[in-house]
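Side project, low priority. Logging it here so it doesn't get lost.
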Amino acid sequence: MESEKSTKTIGFRFGVLIFFLCAILSFFGFADSAFAQNNQGRSASGAPSNPRITIKGRITDDHDEPLPGANVLVKGTSIGTSADADGNYSLTFQRSPGKSDILVYSFIGT
């Protein structure tokens, strides 16, 4: 009876040890994944390979009058802004790696 009880105790302790070992190893696995995600978009020197840029401008008509409310979009994305009452706009976005970004201007009105 004593031997059977000590076998169960050893089995329980072994199970607890395996559980904690798996928990610790899985924690390190998630930490490595998060670290890898933080390095995406960086070159070998550590500088961002596709930096955020800000483009500012003023939208006017043929007579140099401002076009308030005109829209500015980065083509192929949902990134955009609208011009203020003086036709000024500012747009900040992350550059697309390996391609040129195109701005699309639109205005509905007279």
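Brief comment: Confidence is low (pLDDT under 50) at residues 30-39.
Revisit when time allows.
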